[in-house]
User: What shape does this take?
Amino acid sequence: MATLLSFENPVFLAYVIAASIMLLKLTLQPWMTVYRMMKVRGGYRSPEDAKKSPINPHPEPGQLEPNEYVERSRRMNLNDLENIPAFLVAGLLFVLSEPPLVLAHALLWGFVVSRAAHFIAYVTAQLHDVRATLWTISSISVITMAVYTLLHAVTL
Assistant: This one.
């Protein structure tokens, strides 16, 4: 019999793949922000960022002013920071509760797909209703994993 935290366990394998994708999303999103700041030469936050340097050879007034193009990426990053860590913890605990594979796939991949769709909706400036619906799907996935795990733990 495969141990729970082994790649031989298909639930754990699904979690590892989903978690790895979400970790990449979480760590690559700030690079999108950096790219956008460099592209517009603005949207900087700290006073020292608008000083002359090899990366900023021609500082201009206004580089510290908010730039919507940059701020949108920052908001996406903050949204990831509010959601992905809970998924990582809930998902791992969920694996330990030995859920059925079909349920695990639905919840883990439901989260990943809804977060990917949320990213697309956010980067293309879709209505809040669209983003909220996609966020709700990912949130329900995490809540369901946590409740399932809790019920499993209290019934042992």
Remarks:
- The chain has a mean pLDDT of 96.
- The CA atoms of residues 11 and 101 lie 6 Å apart.
- The chain has four helices and no strands.
- Residues 10-154 form a domain with the Four Helix Bundle (Hemerythrin (Met), subunit A) fold (CATH 1.20.120.550).
